Structure formats: C-alpha cells, structure tokens
Amino acid sequence: MSGVSRDSRVSRAAGELPASARAFLEGPHTATLSTLRPDSTLHVTPVRFTFDAATGLARVTTRAGARKALNVTAGRTAARAALCQVDGFRWVTLEGRAVTTDEPTRVAEAVRRYTARYRVAPPAPPDLIVMEITVERALSLNV
Known about the structure:
By secondary structure, the chain is α+β, with helices and mostly antiparallel strands.
C-alpha cells in the first residue's frame, strides 16, 4: 500500500481502543464476518453488528440455520470469528471467541443495540439468534 507504513497499523486489546476507533464502530457501517467452516475453510459474509466497548462484546443477529451460525456452533468453545469494518482506507478488525445463543434476553439486547445503531430493527426470522464475539484483539488503521 503506498503511503502507509506497517507501523501505522495498530493491534491492541479491545479495551484499549481509542475514542476515534470506538466512534467509527458506532457509525452505521457494515462489516465482513469471517468464521471457519468444519472443513477449516474460511467463510466470509457481510453483516451488520454492534460493539460494546465497555464489555468488549460484539453482537451479530442471524438465523440459527445460517452458515456463519453453523460454523460457530460446530466450533464449540474453540470457535473464533473476526469482524472487519471498512470505510475507504479506514478500518477496524475485531477478533475473538464466538458463541451463538437463542436465549431471549440476550437476543433482545442484540436487537435493541442493532436498532439503536442502524435506526431500523434487524430482520426477525422465526429462528433468530445472536452470535456473541468476546473481542480479544482489535486491529485498526487510520481511525
């Protein structure tokens, strides 16, 4: 990449994100979500998500039968995921352990946060669940 040195990329714990990166993650952007299929190949899909900087928890609402959810469920406690939000040459990637749940209060919290961020409720299929990613590392550039 011209004009960008390797030193301008920053990796840190989720709790150490600067205010500018947290603000970037509050805008109504989409991201790519990367998960591993059971055969260890990468599955990447666009998603909308929320990030709670205070707890380091990212949330993605989805259907229980969606490939991304099946990948995380198949990975059990070892499931990992990465969210990457990009806007031009600015980006933040959030990486961590992922779980899925259909627990009503956790799904409701994800829907509440999604609606606040995107100003519209997420799709509500009958098998709506939430994927929760406990962010262990955040990488960023130009935010």
